[in-house]
Structure formats: structure tokens, C-alpha cells
Amino acid sequence: MAALQHGTARVSARVLIAGCGDVGLRVAHRLLALGDEVWALRRRASDDASGIRWLQGDLTRPETLRDLPDRIEQVVYLPAPGARDAQVYRALFVDGLRHLLQALDGRALRRVLLVSSTAVYGDHGDAWVDEETPTDPPGFNGKILLEAEQWLAAQPIASVVLRLAGLYGPDRLQLIERLREGGVSVPRQSLHWANRIHVDDAAAAITHLLSMEHPLPLYLGADDTPLPLNVLYDHLASLVGAPAPAEGAGPAGVGSKRLSNARLRASGFVPQWPDAREGYAALLRDR
Q1: Which of 80, 73, 37 shows the shortest CA–CA distance to 58?
Q2: Structural element, H or E, at residue 42
Q3: Per the confidence metrics, is the pTM higher than 0.90?
Q4: Which of 1, 40, 143, 217 sits at a 20 to 30 Å CA gap from 12?
């Protein structure tokens, strides 16, 4: 198994990352540094020579998953849809997850970690949202991710779901460019909460949960500081010398809510970037 908490000696694990994009790659490098053997599955081959063992396969086509390595102990499932389309999401997150688990040796598999999204929640206005808050996804993406979560929970294998807030990081600065171009509006007469997590903190949270001996089945992955959308956007605009965004509607299909990371924090995880304003500022300095 992977690392154990509370001073227990760490034993290396055989980990498969299914869908190794930006966050997956960061997870892989963290696991390698801890001494794990890491395989990464993606549709296209990679020439990365960092020690990751690359596998080529398509999660939506089970015939491409026949030669997976044996004795995989932990799986991280975090594929990236190629299009914002219900059929694409279902094929990847529901059918793809089923295909992968059917292709792996169930006798060795100890844990599956599914990276989901806080899109499974509806609008909660000014209220705090945590793992006990009822789900009510407003969009097809949240509905399909929730279906994948429920399917996984019904399988005879230990599983953990991490619902991530909005990601930002070195390759996720489109918002900054839109602010510079004046292409962003925010609601100012009504309160709309924004929740973020830095990609490095998302990868660290995944690694942390893999290392726990007895994690709970569900965690929210967000930083410490939910912010009113206008406060966040005004601050980012000021960092790059752009005008404050004009008054406008909130993001479509995304309800307002304040996400609590208290459960993840209580498990021992500490984000490097507890406030997105500081995280964005560091990214812009590095850029």
C-alpha cells in the first residue's frame, strides 16, 4: 500500500494514473519522489523520460486496455474530456471507469481515487457547502460525474472521491487574458461566491489521500478562502493593470456556494496556496 499516516513506515505502491494530463503529471512526479512505481495511461504516447511508465490506451475503447500491468494497487482516475458534451462525458467518466476496473486485476487493487468536481452541487447562495451537503447538479457534467461517483461507491473496492473546485495554475491563466481584453463581467448587485484550488495543491491533495491508511470516502478539494466573484476578479484585474470588470451575470450553470475544505484540512492536508489572490500573484510574478 501507499504511505501510512502517523509515523508508520512508508511502503512503496504500484499506482496507475488514468488520464495523465496537467494534474495527473504533477501527481505522478510526487509519487515517484516518494518511491512509488507509477504507470500513466493516456490516448497518445508520451516521450516524458522522468521515470513514469507510459501506457497508450483509450478508456472509451476496452479493447485498448487488454495489456495493462498486473498487480496495480491504487488507481487515480482523472481523465479530461475532449469536448463539453454529455455523450463524451458519459463515455469517459461512467463507461471508461467501468472498462478500466474490468481490465485490472481486482485481487491486487486496493483503492480507487476518482477526481470529481464540485459541479455536483447546486446553488446554495451564501451558505457553506461541505461533504454532507445534498447534491443537486445543475448541468449535465455534474450529473454524469455524480453518476460515476455512485457507480464506484457500489463496487466491491475501497474508493475515495475528491471533488475539486475551479483549478488555476501556470497553464490555466485564460481568465487573466480575458480580464486584460475586457471580456469578463461579474455580478455586483448580488453575491456570487468563487472557489478555487491551485493545480499543485490539487496534486498534493490527491497524493495525500493516496497516502492515508483509512481515508473517508469523500473530500472537497478547495483552498481556504472562498471569495465573492467580484472581489476575486477585481483583485486579479488590478494585478495586471486591467480595468475592473463590468457589471454582468454570473457564470452560467454554476451556482453560488462557499466550499469548505475542513474535512481535507482535518486529515492533515495543508494547502500551499490558501488564498487564490496570493496564488495568482505568484504565478504572474513567475511569468
Answers
A1: 80
A2: strand 37-42
A3: yes
A4: 217
